[in-house]
Task: inverse folding
């Protein structure tokens, strides 16, 4: 019996994977969806290649599929369905408190005959982010709403000072409403670290985005 993990490349999906493994779930694949138009993770804006590097750094197979906003649900079902014959019994998600997201994944998984696993659901967002940092994970801020997060945070590491900054600004600690997004570059589940090189911050649709020209894996 095995499970797969819904994977965005960010802190919540990564920490949900970590917590599921600690609870005894065997994860066989990461499942990731990228925009057909931009070849980047939908909503997060992470390049497809960076997700592939995460898969290599963790040492787990990646199922990466292109999708569109209109075709997302069917593409999601098709990707999950392709893994079920291999013995997959469920999928791990990083939802925390948004009921509509949880309802959607439970509906889709129910239709597929698999179980939705939600290791982070209902926990305090401050406790989740603090635990993520304390457990030794490293992540950088790759996008943020420009009216909420200062530009100089883009490309910086998620740490205790960032948590305090979010609290002072009264911004939801885990960015559950899309206030900011992250890319995990190292941590307990990684065998190698992802290093970002020659990055710059650009503006698009009222968001700061980290545009990374070069990246590599290192020990």
Result:
């Amino acid at each position: 019996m095995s499970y797969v993990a819904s994977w965005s490349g960010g802190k919540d999906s990564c920490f949900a994977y970590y917590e599921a493994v600690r609870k005894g779930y065997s994860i066989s694949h990461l499942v990731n969806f990228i925009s057909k138009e931009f070849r980047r993770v939908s909503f997060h804006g992470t390049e497809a290649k960076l997700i592939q590097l995460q898969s290599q750094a963790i040492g787990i197979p990646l199922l990466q599929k292109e999708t569109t906003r209109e075709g997302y649900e069917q593409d999601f079902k098709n990707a999950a369905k392709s893994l079920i014959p291999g013995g997959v019994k469920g999928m791990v998600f990083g939802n925390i408190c948004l009921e509509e997201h949880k309802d959607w994944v439970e509906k889709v998984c129910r239709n597929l005959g698999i179980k939705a696993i939600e290791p982070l659901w209902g926990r305090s967002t401050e406790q989740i982010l603090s635990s993520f940092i304390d457990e030794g994970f490293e992540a950088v801020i790759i996008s943020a709403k420009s009216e909420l997060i200062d530009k100089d945070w883009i490309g910086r590491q998620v740490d205790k000072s960032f948590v305090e900054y979010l609290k002072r600004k009264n911004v939801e600690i885990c960015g559950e409403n899309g206030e900011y997004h992250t890319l995990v570059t190292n941590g307990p589940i990684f065998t190698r670290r992802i290093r970002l090189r020659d990055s710059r911050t650009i503006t698009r649709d009222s968001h700061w985005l980290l545009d990374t020209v070069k990246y590599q894996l290192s020990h």
